[in-house]
Each structure stands twice: as structure tokens, then as C-alpha cells.
UniProtKB/TrEMBL annotation:
SUPFAM superfamilies on file: FAD/NAD(P)-binding domain
Gene3D superfamilies: FAD/NAD(P)-binding domain
Example GO molecular function: oxidoreductase activity
PANTHER family named in the record: CONDITIONED MEDIUM FACTOR RECEPTOR 1, GERANYLGERANYL DIPHOSPHATE REDUCTASE
Protein name (database record): Oxidoreductase
Occurrences of domain FAD/NAD(P)-binding (ranges): 22-189
Pfam families the record matches: Pyr_redox_2
Species the sequence originates in: Desulfosarcina ovata subsp. sediminis
């Protein structure tokens, strides 16, 4: 399969040489970007997903497909390939424990989706996030350009001139529409609203993966509640993944040390080997209902826009990506800016309503970041 000015890997649709113009440039290869691209492909538009890392790229995430995301996927995608599931495949629900509880009781939460109205005992699916995101992108059938970093963009008449660094080479691409699906530290958002990020509060998340044992049922997801922090624990592929947040009073690494001690003393955690450690940051956009959808023909989706459901970013990413793609298609027909259609979209308003439930639910369970 040949592309003008470049070649395409027919198996993955990764292009090694980019054209000078595309109808739509999607920045970010996560679920939000993939969902937007999938919605647009088939309309005749020329769509490319650009990703700053090599594909398939890693993403710090528990990798649990919650019931609401399962529903979206069943309605919009083929079945998830079997090789993408990790053991245990099914997650029955959530349980939580408090570092302040002298008995360290493990208590059931009503359901996995704190902000949704699906049946409480719907189960989640445990997936390999690296392979899952790449599968979503391939399902979109859009071209992908990896090792392609967005530098900046500017208006060029009715179009947008996007400057990227692709495989070490700087170039400009012209596009009619730009979709920012590039996560909580979004370059697209910062270029569009330079002062906005200064208003946000940020929290660091840090996780470690262990070979070892713990006296907790592996088919459940566990939340660790703490007066100044929070954490989560899941079993994945025979290993234990422990994730914690920082706070004004304590670094995430020190919080993790406390949580490890708590789990050793109360739930029999035995670490045989640490096999990975990594960290990310997230902001408080959803907890303050401080969403940004974009402007004119630049749209923000997923975490870039603030769509996170109770510490679950996958569902909001999929939903908002589809809404943005449909907004562009509607704009082409109506002549109105895509931002107008996006801000009016039923999926956007339903997602806002669901996210709005998150803050009180998190606070009710004792999450310090949700207060």
C-alpha cells in the first residue's frame, strides 16, 4: 500500500513520511484520539493520528475496562482480541480499606463505576493497556505517525498550520481540523489557552509493580483511603500493582512506603522483587467541573478536555472522542464551526452529568483528591 510522498506499513497503518496536508490531525494515540479518528474514517476525510512516542506506546494505567467503557466498546467496536486480556480477566468490583481503620477492614463499594447508573455488579475487564490502545488505533483505520511531536500550531486563514518534529525532522502540516487528545498536560490546550494550566492544581501519581503475594482476592480492585493521600492495588498477570498519589504534606514515593507497610502489617504483602516503577501527573479539571472543549476548529477530547470519571479516563476518552468526530462531520454539512456542534452534543452533556456525580462520590468514600 503506497501513499503519495511516503510509504505505509500495511499491517499497522504507520506512515514513515507525512504528507503536507490532511483534513484532520489528531494529536495523541490513546482511546480519545482513536475514537475520534474511527468516527471520521469512512467519511472520505484524510485523517492522521500523530504520537510523540514509538508505537505501540506505554501508558501508566490500571488497565481496567469498566462497565461503561465495555458498553461503549460493544456498541462501536468489534470484540477485544483475546490476547489483550490479562489475568485475572474479569474484575468483579471495587473494595476499599482505610489506613486509619485499626482493623484494616476490606469493604465492598457499590460498583466499579462511581459516576454511572449501570447495574452495580457489572464486572470490569483487565487488559494490557499498551496493546489495547494500539488496537483501538488500528481499528480506526486512520494513518498513524509515531515519533511525531507537536511543537505548536497557528491559524492559516481558515486552516491550521501545525508544526511537528517527526523522526527528528521539523515540518509543517496544513489541516482543516485539529483534535487535541494529548492527555492532562496537553500541548494543544496550552497553545489554545496559554494561561489556563496556571489555574490548575496538580497531583503526582506513582506506582510500583511487584512479584510477590498478598492476602487479597485477585479478582477485585482495591482502593486505599488515607487522610492525605489515596492509592489503588490490582493484580495483573500474576504481579501486584500498587499506585499512590502525592499531597501537599507528602511525596508520592513516601506515601507508597507507608502503604506498603500498611499492607505488609495488615494484609500479608510479601514483595519478592520490584519489577517496575513509574509516575505521571493529573490535574483537577473534572473535580472543579473546569472543562475545556476547544475553540472553532480545534477540539479537545479526553483528559485534555477534563473528561475523567472517578479516576477512570478510558470511558470519557472514548465518549468525547466520538462526539468530537461527529461534531466535525456535522460542521461540514452545516457550515457552522465544529466547536458549536461539539458543545451542543448529547454525548458531551451526558458525560458532564456523569462526571458531576464523581466529586461527591469520591468524597463519600474518603478520597482526599475528590474533596
Amino acid at each position: 500500500m503506497k501513499e503519495k510522498n511516503g510509504t505505509i506499513d500495511n499491517n499497522t497503518l504507520i506512515t514513515k513520511e507525512m504528507k503536507k496536508s490532511y483534513d484532520v490531525v489528531v494529536v495523541g494515540s490513546g482511546p480519545a484520539g482513536a475514537s475520534a479518528a474511527k468516527t471520521l474514517i469512512g467519511s472520505g476525510l484524510d485523517v492522521v493520528i500523530i504520537e510523540k512516542c514509538s508505537l505501540p506506546r506505554d501508558k501508566m494505567c490500571g488497565g481496567i475496562i469498566l462497565p461503561s467503557a465495555r458498553k461503549f466498546l460493544s456498541e462501536n467496536y468489534d470484540d477485544i482480541p483475546k490476547q489483550l486480556f490479562t489475568e485475572p480477566k474479569e474484575i468483579k468490583g471495587s473494595r476499599y480499606m482505610s489506613t486509619c481503620d485499626p482493623q484494616a477492614q476490606v469493604i465492598d463499594c457499590p460498583g466499579l463505576d462511581l459516576g454511572d447508573t449501570l447495574p452495580n455488579r457489572e464486572f470490569g475487564l483487565s487488559i494490557d493497556r499498551v496493546g489495547f490502545d494500539f488496537w483501538l488505533c488500528k481499528e480506526s483505520r486512520a494513518l498513524m505517525a509515531d515519533n511525531c511531536l507537536l511543537i505548536d500550531y497557528k491559524k492559516d486563514g481558515r486552516d491550521i498550520s501545525v508544526r511537528v518534529k517527526h523522526d527528528g525532522n521539523y515540518m509543517r502540516i496544513k489541516t482543516k481540523y485539529l483534535i487535541g487528545a494529548d492527555g492532562p498536560i496537553s500541548r494543544v490546550r496550552r497553545s489554545l489557552f496559554p494561561e489556563f494550566d496556571k489555574t490548575l492544581n496538580w497531583v503526582a501519581l506513582y506506582e510500583e509493580h511487584y512479584e510477590g503475594k498478598i492476602d487479597l482476592d485477585p479478582e477485585w480492585m482495591y482502593w486505599i483511603i488515607d487522610p492525605i493521600s489515596f492509592g489503588s492495588l490490582i493484580h495483573k498477570g500474576g504481579n501486584i500493582h500498587l499506585n499512590v498519589s502525592n499531597s501537599k504534606e507528602e511525596t508520592a514515593i513516601n506515601a507508597l512506603k507507608r502503604f506498603v507497610s500498611f499492607l505488609k502489617n495488615n494484609h500479608g504483602l510479601k514483595i519478592e522483587k520490584k519489577i517496575m516503577s513509574r509516575g505521571i501527573v493529573m490535574n483537577d479539571m473534572p473535580y472543579r467541573e473546569n472543562y475545556l472543549l476547544g475553540k472553532e476548529n480545534v477540539l479537545l477530547v479526553g483528559e485534555s478536555a477534563g473528561f475523567v470519571r472517578a479516576l477512570d479516563g478510558i470511558t470519557g476518552a472514548l465518549v468525547s472522542g466520538k462526539a468530537a468526530g461527529e461534531a466535525i462531520l456535522q460542521s461540514i454539512k452545516s457550515g457552522r464551526p465544529p466547536m458549536e456542534h461539539y458543545s451542543e452534543h448529547e454525548l458531551v452533556h451526558s458525560e458532564w452529568a456523569i462526571c458531576k456525580k464523581v466529586q461527591p462520590n469520591l468524597a463519600n468514600y474518603g478520597f482526599s483528591f475528590g474533596k
